[in-house]
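Handout, section B. The chain below has 369 residues.
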Amino acid sequence: MSEHVLVTGFPRMIAKRVAAEVLAKRPEARVSLLARSKFLEQATAFAQRALHKERLSVVEGDCASIDLGLSGQEWKSLCRDLTHIQHHAHVSYEGADLALARALNIGGTREVLELARNAPSLRRLVFESTAAVSGDRTGTVYEDELDRAQSFRTEIERTRFLAERLVQRAFDDVPITVLRPGLVVGDSQTGEIDRFDGPYLLVLLVLTAPADLSLPLPARGNAPLNLVPIDFVAAASVAVMDDPGAASRVLHLVDPAPMDARRVFELLSSIAGRKMPRGFIPANVTRAVLRAPVLDRLLRSPRAFFEQLATDVMYDSRAARDILEPHSIRCPPFDSYADATVQYVRDRLAEQRSRDEARETALVDDPLA
């Protein structure tokens, strides 16, 4: 095999999608999937089910550890023939342990950069950042902008910013492409996603509210909502691996014409058969709503997303479009896959209700209860 690609970030869905995309689109590539020991069994099962599984192997390691948690011999062997790195390991959800977030987001980035510097055949490191490195900036944010004295809404956002700053400082000695996706949602065809976070607050609010209730939006809703499906992000990640125009570049993976939050909420309400939303909930009431048990159980960081709803920012993506359009890769508009998004969440909610009902039945039937 003429190419050897290391993919980090398992068990996140983006790592799985990128590994599958590499195997499908690059027949000369073999893929090493880095997985922590606690996920090793899960990673092995994924590899055994994969198409082209003969070219996919699992490597036990940890981005947050020195030398990725590899032995000296393993690290040297990986360096020797590595041609590409797809780095997708990071902590993005609020409520995560901050020490872990710093270790993985910042420390893990340092370790991957060290690996890249010691891989003589490396052709590209693709680094997944986030559009949220713009923090609380408003107006138009350009792809070549990073540090503009912005503040950050959360400590997690700040660690993602610091990680990207490390990467940009390595542009002169490592061939790197930085990707900044907007708010990542499920597959544009199936709706599949690995966790409900961020914008799924809106879907869950619509689907769990009474059908005859005209639900207000939990913010004014006049700011753009920068949604991108995960299959678009995975395809873009693989397409830029050898594109010469993408070297030492930062690319915004966003919808160039995003809907505002109110239009998204109205579209979701229509698909779900709910009344059109009226007005908006004041901030103090919204915070109380976000503490509802069903949302707390299913959502990772609803309060952080609420802050994003109030940030009026547009991400310029001209460089990304110039590079991706020759590969026939474009971000689909949200209204083309909103139905799939709603249906996937609806199905997961039905499964959750079935599990809850089964649990309650088991408790009632327990003779010791």
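Note. The chain has two domains: 3-187+226-253, 200-224+258-311+334-355. Compare this with the example in section A.
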